[in-house]
Design brief:
- Helices cover 33% and strands 10% of the residues.
- By secondary structure, it is of the alpha/beta class.
- The chain has a single domain, classed as 3-Layer(aba) Sandwich (Arginase, Chain A), CATH 3.40.800.20.
- Strand 4, helix 7 and strand 5 form a beta-alpha-beta unit.
- One of its GO terms (cellular component) is nucleus.
- It holds the Pfam family Hist_deacetyl.
- InterPro entries: HDAC_HD_type_1, HDACs, His_deacetylse_dom, His_deacetylse_dom_sf, Ureohydrolase_dom_sf.
- One of its GO terms (molecular function) is histone deacetylase activity.
């Protein structure tokens, strides 16, 4: 990507990246929901292959904290307002009560994570939406003759502990056992996730309306899990049980009269669930339009939705080559049949210049062009428009090789650039209103760098300032990982003042507040009393390093990784599982989980170079009766 001021150690901006004017800065916030930590895998004590894990949110919080710390340096320090004297002849001697009144007029933020100059508002959400009664949830996942799926999901969660204790699976037969898991805390996590998305929408919609008295807020990043874009109306898959973004779109329509919705999906994997739901919504609205034009009775029209996805066509849910899934992930249809859907396939990039000058400029940016066409065709800018980003970070250059095994990646800076471009589109058509919701992303480094870059792109900075992509360079990510690594006691220790770089010191201050809140939520979560059957899998030796690290990418060449040797062990696959031998460095084993849950590790230390791309199949048959090595 062409850059200016690119001397080492200097800030530089991205050429062509839209920059806001001096008085048009939109306000941004992040929404944190600690209830999402309660969704855990309890089927086995062996968590080594589980990538959709609570710790994902910790890695996200590290990246968000670092982004805020860096962005603060671009904003001028605001002076604390002085108290206004009641009159100039106030006597020097004041009563204590008068002094209290004067002090109360001072605007002092006691929260060290949000100083007066912080460009990002941090919202610790306590919101929760009942999945059996919330109108938007029922709009997406309900059924005319009864909310069968929602009631079933609630029952699965309720019975999960007992079923596992009795040696069974909490996921009913017929669903991919490796793609999905539940526990008693899953309900709070799912309801907290939906509630937080809706809360972010309410805040953005209400505060951006004309004549509002609320604190302005235009853009929000919602850090929640489990993800949602693979879940259709009644088909959970790929870690997803409820479609968070689709529910958010329905909530915006039902509660805030939003009629035109843009959904950008930038996850590595095609959001087959979201596209299916969008198709149904557009189909119904198109039917209503035709009936109205044909002289039918007046009726309240449904929303119109644009869905644009950029993804790897070789990965889940398409990697088995099933014709219906591949075709769906390749649809490009605009206006015909009332549909507005665009799918763009990721390609391997050979250099930064190739990515930005060829792939992004000539191919990937068409996702934005088609969204503009949709909005222009349906009325242009308006107060009835809202923009969403289904923000998966698993296409990041730092993702596990086992997750991104076809090398269809994007540099971490993509998450900054796309956020900027989507923000400019929302500024023109939607009054600046934009909601970004976390989807995939599984290695800590992918999540941290992606979150850091993405939030930096969602925040407008003052005229003349520049976001520096070196903020999320490998060198700085290593510093960040070392500083925030969990130590004995569960939390990173704050360094003495002046012992580390200022941005890192500030990052730790912000992050420690987020981490402490998460630790309290985790500590208050009741642990399962269910008996957990011992795993019969034979795992590789972990005593000499860890092998699940982000693989090499064009933008990270020259970065040295320490090599390690480990014992070679092979996990056998029984009938029903398509075990595939995986080799990484000098270590080999087989994947017995044909699922995105599979990954060599969920830790994030430096490790050996990957010699062969691991294969992870994202669909499973029935769970095996017995696994032997």
């Amino acid at each position: 990507m062409p850059m200016v001021d690119s001397q080492p150690g200097q800030s530089h901006s991205f050429e062509g990246v839209p920059q806001p004017g001096p008085s048009t800065l939109k306000k941004s916030a992040i929404f944190i929901q600690d209830a999402c930590l309660q969704h855990r895998y309890i089927r086995s004590r062996d968590l080594s292959a589980i990538v959709e894990r609570p710790e994902r949110l910790r890695a996200i919080n590290v990246g968000l904290s670092a982004a805020i710390a860096r962005l603060e340096g671009l904003f001028p320090t605001q002076e604390i307002p002085k108290p206004v004297a009641e009159s100039e002849d106030v006597e020097a001697a004041k009563e204590a009560s008068d002094l209290v009144d004067v002090m109360n007029k001072l605007t002092i933020d006691a929260d060290p994570s949000s100083p007066p100059r912080s460009p990002v508002r941090i919202v610790h959400s306590q919101a929760s939406s009942n999945i059996l009664s919330h109108p938007a949830v029922k709009f997406i996942h309900g059924d005319i003759e009864g909310d069968v799926y929602l009631e079933s999901l609630s029952q699965w969660i309720k019975e999960s502990q007992d079923k596992i204790a009795n040696g069974g699976s909490e996921i009913p037969e017929g669903y991919a056992q490796g793609d999905l898991y539940l526990c008693p805390g899953s309900l709070k996590a799912l309801q907290g996730a939906i509630g937080t998305v809706c809360e972010a929408i309410d805040s953005v919609m209400s505060s951006s309306r004309p004549n509002t008295t609320q604190v302005p807020l235009h853009r929000a990043f919602v850090a929640i899990r489990p993800p949602g874009h693979h879940c259709g109306e009644d088909t959970p898959s790929g870690f997803c049980f409820l479609n968070n973004v689709a529910i958010g779109a329905a909530h915006a329509h039902l509660q805030h009269a939003v009629k035109r919705i843009v959904i950008f999906d930038i996850d590595l994997h095609h959001g087959n669930g979201t596209q299916s739901i969008v198709w149904q919504i557009n189909e119904e609205t198109y039917r209503q339009t035709l009936e109205s034009e044909g002289g039918g009775p007046n009726q309240k029209m449904g929303p119109q939705v644009y869905y644009g996805s950029i993804h790897d066509i070789l990965s889940y849910p398409c990697e088995d080559g099933k014709v219906n899934l591949v075709q769906a992930a390749s649809v490009s249809l605009h206006k015909s049949h009332g549909q507005y859907i665009e799918n763009i396939h990721l390609e391997t990039y050979t250099s930064e210049d190739h990515f930005w000058d060829v792939l992004y400029k000539e191919k990937y940016s068409k996702l934005l062009d088609k969204a503009r066409d949709f909005l222009n065709d349906t009325g242009g800018p308006g107060d009835d428009v809202l923009v969403f980003i289904s923000c998966g970070m698993d296409a990041c250059e730092h993702e596990y090789e086992s997750m991104s095994r076809h090398n269809r990646k994007v540099p971490a800076s993509f998450y900054h650039r796309f956020a900027r471009d989507a923000s400019v589109l929302s500024d023109k058509y939607a009054g600046g209103r934009l909601i970004s919701v976390l989807e995939g992303g599984y290695s800590d480094r992918a999540l941290t760098s992606g979150a850091m870059a993405h939030l930096s792109g969602l925040v407008d900075t003052p005229d003349g300032t520049k976001v520096d992509e070196q903020w999320w360079s490998v060198e700085n990510l290593i510093k960040l990982e070392a500083a925030t690594k969990k130590r004995r006691g569960g939390r990173p220790s704050l360094p003495s003042k002046g012992s580390v770089e200022p941005w890192l010191e500030r990052t730790l201050t912000i992050f420690s507040s987020l981490d402490e809140s998460a630790s309290r939520a985790t500590a208050s979560t009741p642990r399962s009393a269910a008996f957990v059957p011992p795993s019969s899998r034979t795992l590789r030796d972990r005593t000499k390093g860890k092998n699940a690290v982000p693989g090499p990418s064009p933008s990270s060449k020259g970065v040295k990784r320490a090599s390690t040797k480990a014992k070679q062990e092979v996990v056998g696959a029984s009938e029903g599982y398509r075990g595939t031998e995986i080799k990484s460095g000098d270590e080999s084993f087989a994947s017995t989980d044909s699922s995105p849950l599979s990954s060599p590790s969920s830790t994030e230390d430096e490790a050996p170079p990957v010699k062969r791309l691991p294969r992870v199949i994202l669909k499973l048959g029935k769970p095996p009766e017995d696994l032997t090595s």
